[in-house]
């Protein structure tokens, strides 16, 4: 599928359906990036469905606590939990997973929404470009570390947990030059200081959203069909967001005009996250490995579907597993125990 600006504009102007609702009694939901924007609004929607546990995963203690207090005031839900995680730090991701492993609870819905939108290169303490680490590597690491809990939940409670990765329609506009496409260490190259020039960083956010799509499709390909776990990616649409807070000058002015003309509120955008987490309860397999936008399953970009894209997807998966297994050996255990070595067709 090719990117169409007119199609995006029409979608932004269309009347959006109300939020999907389900009874979440007894279930556990985790939302990342839950202190602001679509993450907070999605948390509010989940809270109104009264899950047994609702975990707001945030980087800041003060902002996270403010979100918990606001959620309680606006919904009456009093069981929200604040858990701290910094996706720019692999050790923080591991500590979050350790805590959940000790907790021993079920996990029914995991919404991985946290992301940053900077186009400036910044090295993390793990020596990765911060955008690539936060938006892709740590997002994937946490999903893999929590995968056993989700599969255990499916087995013990006869349910089909959902892993929702928030991507973007911007993945449609990404073009990779042949040197990068053929690089056997594509992630290491993309995350290196040498590659992250000012010019190459201009499309960093959309590039990470492309790798979110690759991750969802690669993971789904390796989850045995008999495993009742639904992994999907969702586009929240163009919303008012803090993601673009670094914009300045003409770029900021143009974005301000575009917001006035096209942007959804964060609450409207969050409805799409809820749809990805709850839609097709009678036939959950419909959403396995899929990409959704505007409350519908959509075809991914032509690049993702091309033979070249399939090769990049599989090669980047193998490289990612090698990288993350060095961060935490549980990644290898998860792959060997729960995922198929052959790719499902």
UniProtKB/TrEMBL annotation:
<dbReference type="Pfam" id="PF00106">
    <property type="entry name" value="adh_short"/>
</dbReference>
<protein>
    <submittedName>
        <fullName>WW domain-containing oxidoreductase</fullName>
    </submittedName>
</protein>
<keyword id="KW-0560">Oxidoreductase</keyword>
<dbReference type="InterPro" id="IPR002347">
    <property type="entry name" value="SDR_fam"/>
</dbReference>
<dbReference type="GO" id="GO:0016491">
    <property type="term" value="F:oxidoreductase activity"/>
</dbReference>
<dbReference type="InterPro" id="IPR036291">
    <property type="entry name" value="NAD(P)-bd_dom_sf"/>
</dbReference>
């Amino acid at each position: 599928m090719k990117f169409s600006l007119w199609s995006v504009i029409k979608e932004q102007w269309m009347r959006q359906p109300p939020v999907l609702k389900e009874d979440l009694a007894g279930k556990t939901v985790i939302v990342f990036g839950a202190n602001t924007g679509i993450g907070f609004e999605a948390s509010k929607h989940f809270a109104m469905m009264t899950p047994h546990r609702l975990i707001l995963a945030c980087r800041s203690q003060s902002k996270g606590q403010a979100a918990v207090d606001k959620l309680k005031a606006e919904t009456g839900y009093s069981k929200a939990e604040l858990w701290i995680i910094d996706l720019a730090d692999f050790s923080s991701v591991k500590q979050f997973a350790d805590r959940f492993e000790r907790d021993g609870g079920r996990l029914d819905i995991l919404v991985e929404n946290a992301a940053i939108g900077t186009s400036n290169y910044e090295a993390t303490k793990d020596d990765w470009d911060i955008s690539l680490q936060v938006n892709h590597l740590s997002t994937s690491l946490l999903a893999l570390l929590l995968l056993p809990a989700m599969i255990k939940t499916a087995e013990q409670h006869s349910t089909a947990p959902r892993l929702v990765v928030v991507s973007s329609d911007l993945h449609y506009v990404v073009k990779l030059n042949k040197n990068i496409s053929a690089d056997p260490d594509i992630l290491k190259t993309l995350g290196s200081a040498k590659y992250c020039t000012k010019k190459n960083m201009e499309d960093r956010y959309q590039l990470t959203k492309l790798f979110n799509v690759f991750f969802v499709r690669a993971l789904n390909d390796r989850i045995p069909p008999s495993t009742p776990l639904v992994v999907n990616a969702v586009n929240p649409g163009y919303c008012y967001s803090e993601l673009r807070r670094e914009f300045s000058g003409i770029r900021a002015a143009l974005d301000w005009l575009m917001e006035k003309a096209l942007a959804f509120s964060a609450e409207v955008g969050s409805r799409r996250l809820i749809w990805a987490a709850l839609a097709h309860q009678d036939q959950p397999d419909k959403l396995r490995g899929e990409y959704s936008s505007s409350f519908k399953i959509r075809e991914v970009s032509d690049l993702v579907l091309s033979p070249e894209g399939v090769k990049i997807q599989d090669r980047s998966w193998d490289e990612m597993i090698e990288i993350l297994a060095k961060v935490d050996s549980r990644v290898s255990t998860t792959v060997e125990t729960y995922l198929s070595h052959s790719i499902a067709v």
